[in-house]
Amino acid sequence: MTKRLVVVAALMTLGSGAMAQDEGTSSGGGFFSGLSLNTNNKYQISLLLGNQVMFDQNLTYLTPKYSNNAADAIGLPGPKNSQSYSPLTYIRFNDLGSGDLVNMAGVQFTYFLTDAIDINASFGMDLRSTPKKDFIEGEQIKDMAVQGQKWIEGQFQNNWLLTLGGNYHFTVSNEKIDMYAGLQFGYQHGHINTYTPYTDADAAYLMFSALEEKANTLATAASACQTAMETAKSAWNSAQANQEAAKNAYDYADEYYQTAVQTTESRLTDKIKAETDFTNANAEWEAAGSPTEGKEYRAKEVAAVMQSYANDKYDDAVAAQKQAAAEREAAQTSWDDAQKAVTNTYNTYNTANSKYTSAQSSADAARKTAESAKANYEGTVLYTPRIGSGQIVCFTSSITAGVNYALSDGLFLGLEFSPYTFTYTSLSVCPKDNQVYKATAYANRFFANTLLKIGFRF
Predict the structure, then answer these.
(1) Residue 427 CB: number of other CB atoms within 10 A?
(2) Distance, CA of 98 to CA of 399 (rounded, Å)
(3) What pTM was computed for the model?
(4) What CATH number should be reported for the domain whose range is 210-370?
(5) Beta strand 144-146 pairing with 117-130
(6) Strand 177-195 and strand 437-457: pairing?
(7) What pLDDT score was predicted for residue 206?
(8) What distance in Å separates the CA atoms of residue 55 and residue 399, rounded to the nearest whole number?
(9) Left, alpha or beta for 143 (phi > 0: left; psi -120 to 50: alpha)?
């Protein structure tokens, strides 16, 4: 906006000066004799304000977007991966409302072959350069963060134009006004090179070996945890088997003990019966006068033998029951110990399994991080060229028309436009080690490319 105000103020100042001079000069003297068609001055230099470049001068759309994925196609930006926008998207259609009239578009040199015919040439150039800047990694030192620095892609681009043309100047009654029409042919060229510096992808790759070593260390730890887990699981399985054997031994000892108890009870019954029989036999023997022979004597002797036998059998049964009880108690203790061993080995196995799961998870995460760093490098750096380039070329042919107005002797202000302009444009995206991507476009424009001219003739 400031530029526009400056230009308008300058034009108003020059215009008011011309009007003041016009009031003080006789009409017969030819106020603008320096621009009159009957002058002998052959040279004219004009400053062109506007925009003669027919393409978008930010040429980054011409740089190839490298990828390690074959499905990512090279070309102009587009709505989807396999489609480019029309090349006409990057062709500029200038008008008075574009705000370009405050920009210097170039300088035009004109030579008059005759008072009515001139040939002219104009030239303009725009050179842009951005040096590349490498990425600098940040670092965390205890509680203090040393921040890194972002990388900048290096770019060099040049846009330039050259136009050649000729005009025929019409004779008008007002000497301050010069009206003309003609033909103009132009060649416009834009080229861009990009240079990728040391980036965070490079830094990621440099970290890859450390990350891989960390992943290997964690994998080794996970393997050791797995071995410990498998050992604990084997011990748990063995404890379960021992528990089962101890239970079987206890069941056998308990069965043996129960049999011994039953035997003891049976022998006790036999003992009591033998004692009763002996008491009865002894009573009969005493009632018979305690004879030393005869039926009563023999009955007593037999009852005494049977009592002694029953006592011996009962004593044996009691001893067997005690032994069975001791064996059952030992089997119970073994079973209890086996159950505790199962619980302990299970807890050991569960802890080892948790450690293994955690160690394996850490190892997998570290491996994934390392592989991601490697893939990031391979995808964006290792197989990606560091240099990209592209160019655009425009050929134009125009019918031009314009009018110049004298501001002072030899100084003029002019307005020029093109009733018709034909433009042929060729765009090229030039990836390294790959085929060049080319696209072309044609345009027919009417009443376009308005230029403001300030110049002098000498």
Answers:
(1) 25
(2) 21
(3) 0.53
(4) 1.10.287
(5) unpaired
(6) unpaired
(7) 63
(8) 19
(9) alpha
